[in-house]
Amino acid sequence: MQTVIRVEKLSKTFHHNKALHAVDLTVQQGEMVALLGPSGSGKSTLLRHLSGLITCDKTSESHVELLGNTVQRAGRLASDIRKSRAQTGYIFQQFNLVNRLTVLENVLIGALGSTPFWRTCLRWFAPKQKQEALQALTRVGMAHFAHQRVSTLSGGQQQRVAIARALMQKAKIILADEPIASLDPESARIVMETLRDINQKDGITIVVTLHQVDYALRYCERIVALRQGHVFFDGASHQFDNDRFDHLYRSINRVE
Ligand code: ADP
Ligand code: MG
After folding, report:
1. Paired sense of beta strands 63-66 and 76-77, if any
2. First-to-final CA distance of the chain
3. What number of CA atoms fall less than 13 Å from residue 57's CA on the CB side?
């Protein structure tokens, strides 16, 4: 099996607040991993290091590698970070789509990479690419919304469009930061099932941060649990001692 994410001794300090303490994490191709932990435990910080949105401590021996390419090391971003970014799809709690564009146009953006000229490029898409975008929307059950503006969709529907965009991008990895935190239970279920479906059928590696233990146990085979910037559990979800951590999780984030 191929290692697609390798994090070694990742440390991050914000002012005097140590958010991550020498975190190690290795993810193999095709895994769907829940990054679990209460609010403030460092989940988003870890995910943002994977995409190079923030840099680790300069003084640390931290090293982050995605798909065999270094993303950052000891506080410095790699110069060829675009290579790994191009193959990584991002999904955030706050539906990061372009509201004024249609669903189809948002998915087509996935085929553009990080060009600053995407507005112009959108007009020049070949019918083949539009067809591909429609197929991606079909995969997530959103094809009949293709020509609607994103602003008219519910939160759960927007997350499914974001997943279709990652499919269009041909992402090898999806990093999803609290994708269901703003959703009602039914929409959360559909989004998690959609993520699991593309993980199983397309072999896309998924790391999803969650603060609800129930969803992690139900949808992910592996759980990496963080507490105050330390990994305190990394293993199969069926080995996750729910009772032991019950107090920690349920008292902070109860699933309705
Ligand atoms: P989680 O996603 O698990 O809720 P975060 O990764 O957002 O946790 O935060 C971990 C810790 O780092 C928290 O103590 C938070 O206050 C701190 N933190 C995160 N981002 C910043 C930032 N940009 N500036 C200062 N402190 C931050
Ligand atoms: Mg967070």
Report:
1. unpaired
2. 38
3. 20
Q: Is the CB of 43 under 6 A from ligand 1?
A: yes
Its ipTM equals 0.98
Six token digits for residue 249: 């999780």
Residues 6+ apart with CB under 8 A from 69: 78, 80, 81, 83, 84
User: Which tokens go with 208?
Assistant: 């999803």
Quote the CA–CA distance of 108 and 130 in Å, as a whole number.
7
Among left, alpha and beta (phi > 0; psi -120 to 50; other), residue 46 is alpha
17, 56, 226: which to mutate for ligand 1, most atoms within 8 A of CB?
17
Q: Are 212 and 2 a contacting pair, CB within 8 Å?
A: no
Burial of 18 by CB count in 10 Å (0-12 exposed, 13-18 middle, 19+ buried)? middle
Residues 31-65: pLDDT tens digits?
Answer: 999 999 989 999 999 999 998 989 999 988 999 99
Task: Identify the residue whose C-alpha is closest to ligand 1 atom 17.
Answer: 19
Residue 221 has pLDDT above 60, yes or no: yes
pLDDT tens for each residue of 56-98: 999 889 999 999 999 999 999 998 888 888 899 999 988 789 9
Read off the tokens for 54.
């923030």
Q: Does ligand 1 have an atom closer than 6 angstroms to the CB of 39?
A: yes
